[in-house]
Amino acid sequence: MPGVGQPDAAPFMKFNFNDVQAIEVGTTLAPTTVITNGTDFQLRVRLGFEGLLAPLLVGQNFQVAVHAQNLETGDIKTLNVGVFPVPGGASLADFEVASPNFTTGTAGSGADLVIPAGFAAGTYRMLTHVHFENPVIRPIVAGFHDGLIIMVS
C-alpha cells in the first residue's frame, strides 16, 4: 500500500512514497507483519522522486520516523529510522532506506515494541513520516505512510 507524498506536480516534481516493510533480522523470511517476540526487526522504506526539479533534491538530507501506536493500550512510541541523503542518478526515482535494528519483548523488558502485560500479543499501527532537514524544502516536500500494522507475538 503506497503512502502519500507531496508534491504531486508532474512533470515538475512527484514524491513517490512507495512502501514500508518490517523484516525480521537474522532470517531469510520475506517481509512480515507478525514478529516473533524476542526477535529484532528492521523497517525498510521505499521512496523516490521524479520530475524536472527532482535532481535539486540530490544530496539533501531527509529524516524518517515511525510513530508506533500500541492498539491494546493506546501508548505511542517514536522509532527513529534515521537521516539519509537523497541519492542521485537512476536511484533517485526508486530507492530504499533501512532502519537500525529495533527490539521486541514483553512488558517491562525495555524493548522498542512490547507485548503489554495481560495480553497474548502486542499490535502496533506504524505511521511513518518523512521530512527534510532543510527548512526551505521541509514545507514543500513531505510524506507519510499509514499502511503497516505489526503484531509482536
Commentary on this structure:
There is one protein chain. This protein has 153 residues and is mainly β. It has one domain (4-152): Immunoglobulin-like (Sandwich), CATH 2.60.40. 0% of the residues lie in helices and 53% in strands. It is built from no helices and 12 strands. A hairpin with a 3-residue loop joins strand 2 and strand 3 (13-24). The two termini are 23 Å apart.
In short:
The protein is built from no helices and twelve strands.
Helix content: under 10%
Secondary structure category: mainly beta
How confident is the prediction overall: mean pLDDT?
94
Beta-sheet strand percentage?
over 45%
Number of contiguous helices: 0
Question: CATH topology, what is it called?
Answer: Immunoglobulin-like
CATH class placement: Mainly Beta
Q: How many independent structural domains? A: 1
Order of H and E elements: EEEEEEEEEEEE
**Rg (C-alpha, Å):** 17 Å
How many strands, which pairing sense, and closed or not: the largest β-sheet?
6 strands, mixed
Basic shape: elongated
